[in-house]
Amino acid sequence: MSADQPVTVEVGLGDRAYDILIGSGLLSRAGTEISRRLPGTRAAVITDANVAAAHLDALKDGLEKSDIQPAVITLPPGEKTKSFAHLEEVVDGVLAARLERGDIVIAFGGGVIGDLAGFAAGIVRRGMNFVQIPTSLLAQVDSSVGGKTGINSARGKNLVGVFHQPKLVLADTEVLDTLPIREFRAGYAELAKYGLIDRPAFFAWLEENWARVFAGGPERAQAIAEACRAKADVVARDEFETGDRALLNLGHTFGHALEAATQYGGTRLVHGEGVAIGMALAHRFSSRLNLASPDDAARVEAHLRAVGLPWRMADIPGDLPDAEALLSFIAQDKKVSRGALTFILTRGIGQAFIAKDVPASEVLSFLKESHPGEQESRPGQQKSRPSQQKSRPR
Amino acid sequence: MSADQPVTVEVGLGDRAYDILIGSGLLSRAGTEISRRLPGTRAAVITDANVAAAHLDALKDGLEKSDIQPAVITLPPGEKTKSFAHLEEVVDGVLAARLERGDIVIAFGGGVIGDLAGFAAGIVRRGMNFVQIPTSLLAQVDSSVGGKTGINSARGKNLVGVFHQPKLVLADTEVLDTLPIREFRAGYAELAKYGLIDRPAFFAWLEENWARVFAGGPERAQAIAEACRAKADVVARDEFETGDRALLNLGHTFGHALEAATQYGGTRLVHGEGVAIGMALAHRFSSRLNLASPDDAARVEAHLRAVGLPWRMADIPGDLPDAEALLSFIAQDKKVSRGALTFILTRGIGQAFIAKDVPASEVLSFLKESHPGEQESRPGQQKSRPSQQKSRPR
């Protein structure tokens, strides 16, 4: 295992500040990096069966070097694991290992494990130390920054949880080589999102360098670090999601509706793919509302297509519900505040903003135009624009 | 219903500051007081079957005056309700009512309901608004101040939860008239605790005025307000229990051991009774260690006896496990940090302090002396004292 010097991204949250280390060979250094920051503590590792089979021995070796012999709790892989039943299982396991408040819960897996283990760490003894070792690209760029933890409810995804910041994140870029390519690509959609929100130069860099990010050169760590910095900036401005943090939902309102429309099956559409199509639609919708140039929408679509991501509804295999039904999924989304439709729209690449009170009729017409089964043309362009909230200068 | 001007206690926690209103007739003003602070919000009331039968109509009338028609979730009464299963039930109920982050969860009941509903409010959508309407004396003086919420685990009480501060607490003193006298007395033990921790004048006032507190005159609101102020002072100094807040555990280490020894049955010993005996033992133990005068221990014992509370182990009906077994309950207590025995001891009435590294042998000898089944006399007084941590001057 190589052990190049990792890139460090500092997440500045005052007395909850922490480091993200990004680089190859970090599993073998896990004990050293953890002990340096949290000396003399004991740990429980929460993981899933797939990650355990591929990487648990390497992590245990890395922890063993600093005399950390963790309790290990292994869960079934998959989104269904984010449930009350598994939360209780993890909580009981951590308590059974007699860990105290100053000891550590280590999340070792993708977003599901990170969200579930982080939630457990946030509630056992009203908050234990928490370390993230994300093993998917999505988790490295997204779930591991920001402190959101949680589980799903029968009423919707991520409706139950807490804000609980980790003390350290170790993103081992080598581990990503064992990911199925479809999963890597899905994570890449969230990575590219940060260019589209407010870093146009990063998006241009990705258009040039995406193949090296996929191949695993130093560009991979560079790209992950830039995405983490971008997210950390937004989170530091708005830790508890009362304002700007909503920008991170770029692509997610359309994306969640498409995920819901395909029953979150994960066969037809995984989360990052939904976000990819959602981002393309958000740009096209912004162009349709005369907010942004159609050239920018075309550029986003071209890049997603180039890396092999779906970018339009027609790319989803099988039939979709009609536009009315898709709109009803959007209206049920938790980002709907008091009945008004809130969208993240854009004025161009890297110029996303929060648009409140977007008229449902506009969304419906746009969905009809974009729907592979309902290709009606519309008589003319709408003049009314939604009220806008400028994203703050940085 | 009378509606005298309530006493207001401000809990100063920066941007999490809130008011406690204490007085009679507050249920009928609930809508007014809530709407003044959280206008235009919807609510869910979490309560138990006993409280609902006695007081739910009065609360609903009070809310109705401000057009609040709450969803109501009624749970079985009793400590067993603080479980994962009931937590999930409350979370689902709040989500089913389609409440959003800015809406309110109202805890309407004793400590069990407050802890459970507060935990649910802390995790639904990662934190909703929370209002406490405590209906027991214990909850009014203790559970409603400090932001601790949680449930029990098979591994112990209150091991799972979050810190989540309410936006408002309404302590209606009239509601307490429907409490069984034993429960009122048990709550009184926690109230008197604040005099013993650091308010000697309050303890002296209680020695004079306790009968009027029981009878329900203005002294009742006065006493509850003083206890809330005392707790709020400690919590404001140490919101997340890293130091001084441990003073609130006066009487609780011995008390929890006795509760555990009686299987938390609630028939032989309720929590406040355990605390009463625990406080008397903490004073007697401090005197035995030559830290405090035996006269102070005698004064505490006399007051507890006067109000009808148990004050020694012999007051618990039935047999107790032996001193060794009681010590093992103490050593399992979550307040044991890394194997060292931590106790709240005292230098006299109103002079409690945190004592770390109390030798287990001292505790064992004292338990043997105090145990009704093991009345051995000891050969002489021990000279060694535990290390001390001074409580901060105020």
UniProtKB/TrEMBL annotation, chains A, B:
Protein's GO biological process: amino acid biosynthetic process; aromatic amino acid family biosynthetic process; chorismate biosynthetic process
Subcellular location: Cytoplasm
Chain intervals with Basic and acidic residues compositional bias: 368-377
Region (Disordered): 367-394
Gene3D superfamilies, per the entry: 3.40.50.1970, Dehydroquinate synthase-like - alpha domain
Catalytic function, reaction form: 7-phospho-2-dehydro-3-deoxy-D-arabino-heptonate = 3-dehydroquinate + phosphate
EC top class, as a word: lyase
Protein residues bound to Zn(2+): 190, 252, 271
Cofactor: Co(2+); Zn(2+); NAD(+)
InterPro entries recorded: Dehydroquinate_synthase (IPR050071), DHQ_synth_AroB (IPR016037), DHQ_synth_fam (IPR030963), DHQS/DOIS_N (IPR030960), DHQS_C (IPR056179)
Domain 3-dehydroquinate synthase C-terminal: 187-336
Keywords linked to the UniProt accession: Amino-acid biosynthesis, Aromatic amino acid biosynthesis, Cobalt, Cytoplasm, Lyase, Metal-binding, NAD, Nucleotide-binding, Zinc
Superkingdom classification of source: Bacteria
Residue intervals passing through the bilayer: none
Residue numbers binding NAD(+): 111-115, 135-136, 148, 157
Assigned GO CC terms: cytoplasm
Co-factor binding comment: Binds 1 divalent metal cation per subunit. Can use either Co(2+) or Zn(2+).
Biased composition regions of type Low complexity, renumbered to the chain: 378-394
Main location: cytoplasm
Signal sequence, renumbered to the chain: none
Xref: CDD domains: DHQS
Residues in 3-dehydroquinate synthase N-terminal domain copies: 73-185
Pathway(s) per entry: Metabolic intermediate biosynthesis; chorismate biosynthesis; chorismate from D-erythrose 4-phosphate and phosphoenolpyruvate: step 2/7
Function, as annotated: Catalyzes the conversion of 3-deoxy-D-arabino-heptulosonate 7-phosphate (DAHP) to dehydroquinate (DHQ).
UniProt similarity note: Belongs to the sugar phosphate cyclases superfamily. Dehydroquinate synthase family.
The protein's name in its UniProt record: 3-dehydroquinate synthase
Lineage: Bacteria, Pseudomonadati, Pseudomonadota, Alphaproteobacteria, Hyphomicrobiales
The gene coding this protein: aroB
